[in-house]
Amino acid sequence: MKKKPRAEFDYRFDKNNEIMLVRWKDNNICTIATNHDSHEPLGTVKRWYTEKKEKVDVHISHAFQNYNKSMGGVDELEQSISLYRISIHDGVEHVPEKLPTRVRCFICHIRGRWGCKKCKKTLCIEKSYFANFYS
């Protein structure tokens, strides 16, 4: 796949386990395994081409479209967890979650969008109040 041009994809279906693997070449090779989605119908996304110095429409598999549509919250949560070591109290993790509106921080009272998923306290992530409060 490394030698193929951008937006090429390939898929394989395991009939025994009913799992489909789809590989798509974007900037890097991306792989998705799914048991409920298909590679068709193909969609289009805009990607920057340095040779043409403009954005061009390229084809994308349906499985990748669905993943990209619903990945936002999961990626932000995983990024927050990887950036800040969060201890576990009472067997339940205190993990940051992005709030729909801005709320004042419990410590510094500056308005922010991050709060604890377990206890609903709003704490600044940028100033490490969240990590320090739960460590």
UniProtKB/TrEMBL annotation:
The lineage's top-level taxon is: Eukaryota
Q: What is this protein called?
A: PiggyBac transposable element-derived protein domain-containing protein
Species the sequence originates in:
Euphydryas editha (Edith's checkerspot)
Q: Which InterPro entries match?
A: PGBD (IPR029526)
Where is the PiggyBac transposable element-derived protein domain positioned along the sequence?
A: 2-88
Q: Which Pfam families match?
A: DDE_Tnp_1_7
